[in-house]
Fold RNA polymerase subunit sigma-24.
Amino acid sequence: MAEDAFTEHRPLLFTLAYEMLGSATDAEDVLQESYLRWRVVDQATVEHPRAYLVRTVTRQALNHLRAVRARREEYVGAWLPEPIRTAPEVSDDAILAESVSMALLLVLETLNPTERAVFVLHDVFGYPHGEIAASIGKSEVGVRQIAHRARRHVHARRRRFQPDSDDTRQIVRRFLHAAATGELQALMDVLAPEVVQISDGGGKVVAAHRPITGRADVARFVLRVSRDPAVLSHVEHATYNGMPAARFLAGGALDWLLAFEIHHGRITGLYGVRNPDKLHGAEALCPLDRGGPQPWKP
């Protein structure tokens, strides 16, 4: 029965852990730790299983996030969230789609662990300040101040984008065609002037170590990469992190992933993940659930 409750709420718990950590691998570790704790609980004392599990995952994710921060500061090259494959229906929930996007997860990475937890729990999942305070061991007044500070920080840095749709996929097709044919002007036409390209190789494969900004520089970078016929010979369209994406295969295996941030019909962000450690779990579809707030009373 304990397993049934955990299984029922697993998509919600994974979504929460992933948004707090930006890593599907770390989120799974947190869920495993939380499940082991859940198994030894006296179920008769738990009035609201979902609330209890959310609180447990929140605390475990906070502990995990504090532990991995130093590791991320030593990361070789640009760091990107571990991509997750999402169903197109995720785009129907605008808040959920944005909350798992590469753009917002990168902004959340600039918050401290407590700020990140409060922002995710309140602004994404809709939990009241008082319930969050009880979960993270802060006063309600303190949580309100943290929430205000985190929200102001995020809103000042967040980038708007269009979730995956027929329109955005058409723009991706135009981009890939221009890259494959070497048409510089056609490529420039689909890129926004302020476009940013970020590559994550983790020091394990060849990738740009720093973000590339501006339409001209990004276009030249894309065409340089695309000179190798093998790069664009096996491409699949998919949805990752609620965004349109292209999967590049080599020998039938995923070699790298490119997610597209699109706004007002132009590509404003390109997120290329090549680190093999971040791609090994990128094949499976990740069920996500933001749900609605319920009483936390454990």
Q: What stands out?
A: The first helix runs from residue 2 to 8.
